[in-house]
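[User] I wish I could look at a protein chain and see how it folds. I have put the entry right below:
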Amino acid sequence: MRFFDLVALILENLSRRKARVALTAVGVIIGTAAVVVLVSLAIGLQENATKQLYGISDLTQIQVYPNYGDSPTGPGGGGGVTFASGPGGSPAPANQKLLTTKALAEIGAIPGIAALIPRDSLHSGAELSVDGLVANMGLIGISVADLSLLGLKPQGGTLKLEKGTIIVGYSIPQNFYNPRQRPGQPPPEPPDLLDKQIKLSIIKWTQDGQETRKVVQVRVAGIIAESRSESDWAIYMPLDEVAGYNAWVEGKRVDRTRTGYEQLLVKADKVENVLGIADAIKALGYQAYAAQETVQQTSSFFLVLQVIFGGVGAIALLVAAIGIANTMTMAILERTREIGLMKAIGATNRDVLSVFLGEAAGIGFVGGVGGVALGWSVGQIINVLALVYFAGQATQQPGGLPPPSVAVVTPAWLPIFALLFATFIGLLSGLYPALRAATLVPVTALKYE
């Protein structure tokens, strides 16, 4: 039997029982739509979660911290700095790994690293004063000439750090207050800090509780654009200047060969190398964290979620498969004499098998087309309702993360896969009835009433 004759015969047979075919296809439609909607929902959740992570952090960065082992941290306010030996001059633990200059060379030898950026924090309090307003903040010293290397963007000014300058985060101006504000007086407007000379007071306390201040003038060279990360609340200045202030606070020179740095930012040359570099750093004995690890864990979780959701929809398709098998079995009983006549005029077992398998696959295909259309439509309705809800939540909680731009994402491959899967389910469901039809004895089939 020629292919086009086979297709024409299949279409003619299906059109003779429109109501039965339609009712059987409804089950396939529901199952296919369930697969499309549920998997699209899981993909949408994954995409939104990944976008939030990409917006929060530069995924090429790895944060490296010292491994202090069992040794305690350094003096109060030391921000995690430790001595190379234990208390009372006792030897440091064998597993202690500080971020010394030697450690930087050790880590820098790992392939795939684009930059090593040591950083420290000020080990005491700091106060900023401008136009009669005051803010108590911490300072971060960083050994990079341009903060754009960290993936940050300027809202105003520059991100280049020079001696005597600071770069402040987006939210820093909101922390200023009037120390002489009277009860009932409205709070002051956030000051315009860009390119202003402001007073920086470094505060330390003596053992008897006396406060001592070191006052310097610094210029605000730039303001970092909002990134919804640490940088929004950070004040950056050159690492050497922070080291000098720490030496004044602690009364001794900072020795990088012994105490090292508080933190090291490692920037990979590309995202694909981040996890391998992080593992290599951990193998050297240091603590390391990369946002890419969270992205990978999130992706793995949502992949499992897609499989679970797709499995739920597949259950509905399984039920529909039983309906197709039942429909095809009933069709064989009704068309037994027709099958005998086909064989009597020369149709082979293969021809009969092809006809009934084609009809079963046709029901699956029709149901698949309807299911894809229904699933896509339901997904768009969910998108509209979800985005309206998210937008309402965002207006009630301003300043948070931006609402998702889409709730349900249907990639191009999903409708194609769902359609092929529905067709395959129909074909598989018709296999037993088709084999039964193909093996009928022509004489017996012609005598069947």
DSSP finds eleven helices and twelve strands in the chain. The radius of gyration is 35 Å. Confidence is low (pLDDT under 50) at residues 71-89.
